């Protein structure tokens, strides 16, 4: 009950009306930042950091974290409407969110996405409130080997053979890994595949590839069919929100599973993007009807959004308790703490009670505010689809270019983005899957460095991946996920023979 | 794999599903799926070769304390090469290769109508900055593809870059590519 | 803070007065448009924090009429940022904050730039390095630890650090040379990660900057053994920095500090450089800056002009020497 009392105290800190104002301003700014592709939460927070200089630390972190929540909500909007992920963690949301929009169900998809984000955040904040010290200790157990195991698990739970030729799946995946390897090798400091150019040294950013492959690729595909977006939305009423809500409770298992994945990856810290992919993969794997995924299945929106927001929220926990950022945005906020004269780390919870509990209380409140704001704007967003294509398409392309530019402040990235757009178009037509490519691109770097860090520590001994129960069980789980189709088959046989109750999860 | 499009106007055809080749009308033929498959697989093999070549340069072995910098990329390249080679081979030798149209001529024309101005947009952006280029691009796009009159297109084309300018340069302090006009105005 | 304000007002008055009295030809140089502040590192790192803090201080105290924007150009261990500044000769509105990668990146990657391609403005501070071990380890002093390394097998002890062939690994190599044994160096992305790995017991030691590990020290998780500086840290904070001996005192003769300094585009006039030197002097006078210095246990030194140039030139030689000995020089 200690935590509960502290929380009440935290709400007391919030009572200052100015804090509520900062919260609202932050959420609105955050949604805007989330909507603009490329301009991510980390960027947004970094840009506004100097502005918070003259505020009290509590007010400042409330505003910055509100920007972060806003960005977490806002990332889904362009994913659903235009297949352009506003943020890296909303890539997985495009898989089913955009098909839903094409079927004229943009309002449902957005409602589901926002609601799931909210629930994910709420579950994560509850974890933070009551389990902070325990989970902080858990995060410390994660060394390079454990990280590699988690990345392996993400990959294995996501990748499954679809309808495409397995050789094309393999080619797309390895192309992603190869692109991820371009640039400075983080372990040896050697340059790989840059061929003497400075421009290539920064490598291929995941976000630039994704804006091109998904966003520009989609516009080109749309063009083939004439000058319009498919799925003009019908008039949106409160009814459609209600109707969506009625459907959501069915997915309670998905919610719990996704939130658990999100919290886990947020705390350890693995990041919101892998969390959204893993959660999407798991939802599909355990679904009764995996074939529906990718065609506008609402559960395919629920799973990644819940996980992404849960991860994004819980990523603040290691930042506060350990001084390790769980996400790029948290890294910038961490810098903020230092600038405001606070020292993140284990002492923060003891020395700065007002600050910490004020922040945690604000997580509850600003997520509620954020949820209400984005929900009331659903009709507005959905109505963008009614703007004529020849007006909205160039604007989208302009925004994509700005987004690609802002990632590294580099003009070449804009060219690369357009190039990825053409690749996306051609790949889609030839049935090369794009999802394994982007997953490989986002995980490739991380997985390779964790693997090699593990190898350095173990002096090249592979048994490090089964050296304790934690890493061993994650690795085993990963392999189980990879061979799930086989396992499911065996379970089926068992069930058929012995009339067992349903296996699976 | 996840974004199967429901109703492509272009004949749907799954590679490897040889029986399903769709009859092609000569009128709209550009290139066949087979040709495109070969080109893409060939390019991927080329990329794979480059990857492997560079990985060998940085060292693709297994040192006493784990893999060298080029170890993983080398095998990645190898798998990419092999997978693409199989795709290449299937399409080259298989009698059931997909001879349907990759994209119809009218569709290709529409795609080019977006792609070509966008390429020009990027070139213009390099010289005059993103704001002027965007104004021209939006205006052109609306008038050429949307058949709007200049009186309708111009306000949109001017307003959007202005809003973006305010948002990025003034509110968020994010510098985007700028050209001589902005410099003359003191930015 | 008050002093800074007075100083700022005074400077502004002088400038305005000068302008009015003697006309434009005598006017002191001032930025005419937005100043770009390049960070050759990613968001959230030490250099990024310092740059954004400076941006905030300048904004809050209105030390400059024009806005300042911070731009991260981290590609290729910072090479991208340095190449950008090098390539924008004569640009009076572009400055860059440096860390040790000013010296290490061109040596380790072969990217063609050196500090001589840039115009030195001023040194802001020197960042310290401290040898840390987990507090559950038996080593009470740097000598204990180095003796244990000596007694152990090659590569038995594991050191984690930020980045590859950069400052942390250079210090590691220096320790190897003293001990005569190899350490296993495991590179991580950020200083926070490194500290966490040590707390979690996945590695044996780190050379984290003070600010990255201080909280774990205060919580009793980590133990500082010695600081790689010529003299003890003077910073006044909640942490007892003065209690940490220098490595030399502890019997390990290694000194290393990291430059946090400002450079700008080549080919700018002395007048412009003077303006920025004055600007950073004003920044240093603010209370926020002083607090930041104390929190991070930085060594405060302000150098500009020829002194600064000499310091940088010496540091370049030291780095070249250390990197050559360690075999970190790019092959081409």
From TrEMBL, chain A:
Family matches, as InterPro entries: DUF112_TM
One Pfam match: TctA
The UniProt record lists the keyword Membrane: yes
Domain annotation DUF112: ranges: 20-439
UniProt entry tagged with the keyword RNA-binding: no
Regions crossing the membrane: 20-49, 61-82, 118-140, 147-163, 169-191, 203-223, 322-343, 355-381, 387-405, 410-427, 469-491
Keywords on record: Membrane, Transmembrane, Transmembrane helix
PANTHER family, per database record: BLR4373 PROTEIN, TRICARBOXYLIC TRANSPORT PROTEIN
The protein, known as: Tricarboxylate transport membrane protein TctA
Organism encoding this protein: Mesorhizobium escarrei
From TrEMBL, chain B:
InterPro entries reported for this sequence: DUF1468 (IPR009936)
Region (Disordered): 1-21
DUF1468 domain: residues covered: 40-177
UniProt entry keywords in alphabetical sequence: Membrane, Transmembrane, Transmembrane helix
Entry's transmembrane regions: 38-56, 71-94, 106-124, 130-146, 153-174
Protein name, per record: DUF1468 domain-containing protein
Organism, as annotated: Mesorhizobium escarrei
UniProtKB/TrEMBL annotation, chain C:
Short name of any one Pfam family annotated for the protein: TctC
Signal peptide feature range: 1-27
Keyword Electron transport listed: no
InterPro entries: BUG (IPR005064), Bug_dom1 (IPR042100)
Keywords: Signal
Family: Belongs to the UPF0065 (bug) family.
Protein name: Tricarboxylic transport TctC
